[in-house]
Amino acid sequence: MPTMTAAQQRELAKQDYDAFYADCPSRRLLDRISGKWVALVLAALGSDGPHSAGACAGEPRAMRYSELSRRLSGVSQKMLTQTLRGLEADGLLTRTITPTVPVTVTYELTALGLSLQEVMRGIKFWAEAHMDEVLSHREQFERGAPETVSPAPRAPSSE
Q: What are the pLDDT digits (tens) for 45-96?
């Protein structure tokens, strides 16, 4: 049996990634990126969140921790720190330390993070566009409205 290089082994493993398998490493990544704070951090760094006066809408930019914390209303310091560390570990953002007094730390999306931010942006737009419909369904569900039964799929006609 021929010996494989590390690169060949990684390529072989890459072909086998399937999140439906319990031991697939992509499950850990899916777990990380499905968190609400991840989506909001990506949106903020991608400048897709609420903007303060003079902020550049739509252009990704570096942000300081305190600015991210203010932008993400309701996030605890612990959750924001964990989220940023996880995203940095996965290569989705970079953390830059500038030796000033006090020290300045900024976070910025990498190319990989920008590609994910585009996907998350689509999900965010979908959620905003369909929120009324979702709320209506939730209300019906909570009232105990009868379930709707979908008709059985029809066989394709041979016309």
A: 998 655 454 444 568 999 999 999 999 999 999 999 999 999 999 999 999 9
| C-alpha–C-alpha distance, residues 72 and 43, integer Å | 10
Are residues 106 and 60 in contact, defined by beta-carbon separation less than 8 angstroms? no
Is residue 113 a contact partner of residue 93, using CB atoms and an 8 Å limit?
yes
Phi-psi region of 61 (alpha: psi -120 to 50; beta: other; left: phi over 0): beta
* 97 in Cβ contact with 103 (< 8 Å): yes
Q: What is the pTM of this model?
A: 0.71
DSSP-derived letter for residue 92 is S
**Strand 104-109 versus strand 93-98 pairing type:** antiparallel
Cis check: omega of the bond before 102, within 30 degrees of 0: yes
Pairwise CA distance, residues 130 & 123, whole Å: 11
